[in-house]
Design a protein that fits this description.
The complex is a heterodimer of chains A (308) and B (424). Chain A has 2 domains: 50 residues; 231 residues, MetI-like fold, CATH 1.10.3720. In chain A, 73% of the residues lie in helices and 1% in strands. Chain A is built from 14 helices and 2 strands. In chain A, α2 packs across α14, α4 runs antiparallel to α11 and α13 runs antiparallel to α14. In chain B, 46% of the residues lie in helices and 9% in strands. Chain B is built from 18 helices and 11 strands. In chain B, the strands form 4 sheets. Chain B has a 4-stranded antiparallel sheet. In chain B, α9 crosses α17, α10 crosses α17 and α17 packs antiparallel against α18. In chain B, 50% of the residues are buried. Classes of the chains: A mainly alpha (308), B alpha+beta (424). Chains A and B meet through α2 and α13 of A and α1, α4 and α17 of B.
């Protein structure tokens, strides 16, 4: 019996496997990045959402106003018009950029000594500062001395007062957007094109497929995921677009090219209506998320249907 | 174990590195004891430009401050101007690190309305002309302009003479007639000129004198005056004058082309601008002249302060007395009179009331006479959402007036509805 009293009862040994040890190390490595994201992304996001429930101009303490800013967004002023304008201008920019960049990628996907030059040329606008290149565009559009009207005059066409027309200012916003964004999209399309197995084209060649059929049945299905990436990131980009509007049109003529994101920027950094900026920003974020989710669902649905 | 320690160390280092990177430029965070917020720091390091009055003033001010307030560690911070400066100051105020002196122009009435500024000591108030003060809603002076200008009518004598005119217009209808004639003669090569309606504060500032000449303003006695027939009449005048500006120039977001067209290309006969325009005209060897702004028949003199450099001491200032001392230094005669060399009015009442000090300079004399009555103020300010309301006025009233042919009554009624929403 005495021997039995000497027995120590111990719980089961903790067994740490190699995989668990590696996972711990991985967590330690990842933690700083999570902390960084939490501090610099999640916290401002949360504060922005909270601000939407306040009235705040950064001079006096914020006042809690509940849903008032959200109610105003949907019932007063022109916020819905601004949201709609953000969507349709963004849609034009995104669709034209996606199609044109694809066509250019097809054209650049050839064996030629000059292809490096052309690819680089396509990308250069994307690395130039928006503030600088948009200033060039603005000077081109000067009604009196701008290059655009001088060009028209050379063609015998009457000058256009660009900044008096919503149509023309949106036109130039789209041109500028595509000029800047087409390079990166083209490079991504090109990456996708070069990832398609060449033997598929060779097989199609043997079967006598035309160029259009090769694009239809080999190229496009092979670029499905690349297209998803370009369109998803494009949706986010155009729904956040404000710098081009700010530099090129400043919302003119008389607010006809003003967009929700540009308004949010002004409320946040120029006119200090921070409560409304928070509410409008939250709504724009939700709308953007909805667009992205709907598009993602469509892609997944199509994929599932094709797999079936 | 060594591996775990290494990884933990690596993780901590990475966290600090990443947070450090996220801190932007990594500048030292020094809270200023006394901050003079403007681009003025550049002045002291740019002695090559000391012949310019602006720089002489700023450098003299800084030297005096540093000599006389040697008990303080003074940090001069360069926070730009306009929206940039406003944003920086508000960030400081919100974070509890407000500068001891805040500076600004069109947003300073908002600071005053919010009650965040300390009342100016009486000796400062007594030193300056009342035109240069901003008062809080209780009528207490809380900010003072170290300098300010007013608008005038600058003209190109050559273009006037080409059209058979030898003197500046005194009334709106005379100006309209002259400007129409010059535009017609110019036939697309040169223009008569009119009242700019830039879709930003530059437009509102230049349009405001014409409302005041008609006895009204955008906001008076607690009322938005957009439905005032006198204001609508002035808008009609601004619209009819706009056809004498090159297409798209009067309501462009960028002011630059208009001033270039006047001084460099010399293709616009009349511009409405501050007294500094005299310097630009001289620089470009123009045959120029200047006159008070034309007024409507039966109207009154009216103007608006522009390029005002207001300073004030916020309630949150850590050293209010020393800050007021800085303002006293900035208003001393030996410094304040430097502005006269720049054709810019000084706020000192003893200078304003002494024509011997400025009558030799015609544009300055006209500006001084305009402010002497003490009634000229900056833009009107609204009790709340001031900046958003001005945005509506700038774009959907002024710019729309000259861009479209929409009835003025419709333009003002739609804007009034939106403004009332912001005031409700």
């Amino acid at each position: 019996m005495s021997g039995m009293s000497a027995v120590k009862l111990r719980g089961p040994e903790k067994t740490i496997t190699r995989a668990m040890r590696e996972a711990r190390i991985a967590y330690w490595v990842i933690i700083p990045f999570f902390v960084y994201i939490a501090i610099w992304n999640l916290l401002p996001l949360l504060l922005g959402v909270l601000m939407g429930f306040t009235e705040y101009n950064a001079l006096t303490m914020p006042t809690w106003v509940g849903l008032r800013n959200y109610i105003r967004f949907f019932t007063q002023g022109d916020y819905l018009t601004l949201l709609w304008r953000q969507v349709w201008i963004g849609l034009i920019c995104l669709s034209l950029n996606t199609v044109l960049s694809f066509l250019i990628a097809l054209a650049l996907n050839i064996k030629s000594r000059a292809k490096g030059f052309f690819r680089t040329s396509m990308y250069i606008p994307a690395i130039a500062a928006v503030s600088v290149t948009s200033a060039v565009f603005v000077s081109l559009l000067d009604p009196l001395t701008g290059g655009a009207n001088r060009f028209l005059a050379g063609m015998g066409i009457d000058p256009i007062t660009w900044n008096h027309s919503q149509f023309w200012m949106v036109f130039w916003v789209v041109v500028y957007f595509i000029w800047r964004a087409i390079g990166p999209a083209t490079i991504i399309w090109l990456g996708g094109l070069q990832g398609i197995d060449p033997s598929l084209y060779e097989a199609a060649e043997v079967d006598g497929a035309s160029a259009i059929k090769k694009v239809r049945y080999i190229t496009l299905p092979g670029l499905r995921f690349v297209a998803s990436y370009i369109i998803l990131t494009g949706i986010i980009a155009v729904m956040q677009m404000f710098d081009i509007i700010m530099f090129l049109t400043a919302g003119n003529p008389f607010g006809q090219t003003d967009t929700l994101m540009f308004r949010i920027y002004r409320y946040g950094a120029v006119t200090f209506n921070l409560g409304m900026a928070g509410a409008a920003g939250t709504i724009l974020g939700i709308v953007t998320l909805l667009f992205a989710v709907v598009y993602f669902k469509i892609v997944l649905h199509r994929e599932a249907r094709e797999d079936a | 174990m060594k591996k775990v320690i290494f990884v933990a160390f690596f993780a901590v280092v990475m966290m600090f590195v990443l947070i450090g990177c996220g801190n932007g430029n990594g500048a030292t965070l020094t809270i200023p004891y006394i901050g003079l917020t403007d681009g003025q720091i550049e002045v002291a390091t740019d002695l090559g430009e000391m012949d310019m009055p602006y720089n002489r003033y700023m450098y003299g001010l800084r030297r005096a401050i540093e000599a006389e307030l040697d008990d303080f560690n003074i940090e001069f911070v360069d926070w730009g101007w306009a929206e940039t400066l406003d944003a920086q100051q508000r960030a400081g105020i919100a974070a509890g690190t407000a500068p001891d002196i805040v500076v600004g122009e069109i947003f300073m009435p908002t600071y005053a309305n919010e009650g965040i500024l300390r009342p100016l000591p009486q000796d400062i108030v007594d030193t300056v002309n009342p035109s240069f003060l901003i008062r809080d809603p209780n009528g207490v002076p809380v900010a003072v302009a170290l300098r300010a200008s007013v608008f005038m009518l600058f003209y190109n004598r050559d273009l006037l003479e080409a059209a058979g005119f030898d003197s500046a217009p005194r009334y709106w209808d005379e100006w309209q007639t002259m400007s129409d004639a010059i535009t017609e003669l110019g036939n697309g090569e040169f223009w008569g000129g009119g009242v700019p309606s830039f879709p930003h504060a530059g437009g509102a500032l230049r349009a405001t004198p014409f409302f005041r000449q008609n006895g009204t303003d955008f906001f008076m006695n607690g009322q938005v005056m957009l439905d005032d027939p006198r204001l609508q009449e002035a808008l009609e005048f601004i619209r009819s004058m706009d056809r004498n500006l090159p297409p798209g120039m009067g309501n462009a977001a960028d002011e630059g082309p208009m001033w270039n067209a006047f001084e460099e290309q010399q293709v616009i006969a009349f511009v409405v601008n501050g007294t500094w325009q005299a310097t630009g005209a001289e620089r470009n060897n123009m045959n120029w002249g200047v006159a008070p702004l034309p007024i409507p028949r039966g109207g009154q003199e009216g103007n608006c302060l522009v390029a005002a450099m207001y300073v004030a001491v916020p309630e949150a200032a850590a050293n209010p007395e020393a800050s007021f001392d800085i303002i006293r230094i900035a208003l001393r005669d030996e410094l304040s009179s430097i502005w006269l060399d720049d054709t810019v009015p000084s706020p000192r009442q003893d200078i304003v009331s002494n024509p011997a000090r400025w009558s030799h300079n015609p544009p300055l004399a006209q500006a001084m006479e305009a402010v002497a009555g003490g009634q000229v103020t900056g833009l009107a300010s609204f009790p709340q959402n001031d900046a958003q309301i001005w945005e509506i006025i700038n774009t959907r009233v002024l710019a729309r007036t000259t861009i479209t042919n929409d009835p003025i009554e419709n333009i003002t009624a739609e804007a009034l509805a939106d403004i009332n929403n912001l005031l409700s």
